Amino acid sequence: MGILASLVSTGVRRYPRGPIGHALSAFAFVIAVYTIWAAAFSTWDLVARTIVFLCMMLVLVFPLVGYSERAHPDRPSILDWILSASAFASLLFFLHEVDAIAVRISLFDPLPLSYWVFGTLILLLSLEAARRTVGMGLTVLVILLMVYNLFGHLLTGPLKHGLITPDHMLDIMVFTTDGLFGVPIQVTASYAFLFVLFGVLLERAGGGDFFFGIAAVISGRRVGGPAKVAVFSSALFGMLSGSPTSDVMTTGSVTIPIMKRLGYPAVLASAVEVAASTGGSILPPVMGSAVFIMVEFTGISYVAIAIASLIPALLYYLGVYTQVHLRSRKLGLQRLPEDQIPKLSTTMKSGGAFIVPLVTLVTALAVGYTPTMVALFGAVSVVVVWVLRWRTFSPLKLYNAIAQTTFNMVAVTGACAAAGMVIGGITMTGLAGKVSELLVLAGGSSLAITLIIAAALTLFLGMGMPTPAAYALAAALLAPTLIKVFGLPPLQSHLFLLYFAVLSAMTPPVAVAAYAAAAIAHDNPMKIAIAACRFAMAAFVLPFAFIYDPAILLKGSVLDIVTSAITVALAVVLLSVAAEGYFRSAMPWWSRLICVAAAFCYLIPTPASLIYGSVVTAIALLPLKPWRSAATPAV
Question: Which of 304, 351, 468, 470 could pair covalently with 462 via S-S, beta carbons 3.0-4.6 A apart?
Answer without folding.
Answer: 470
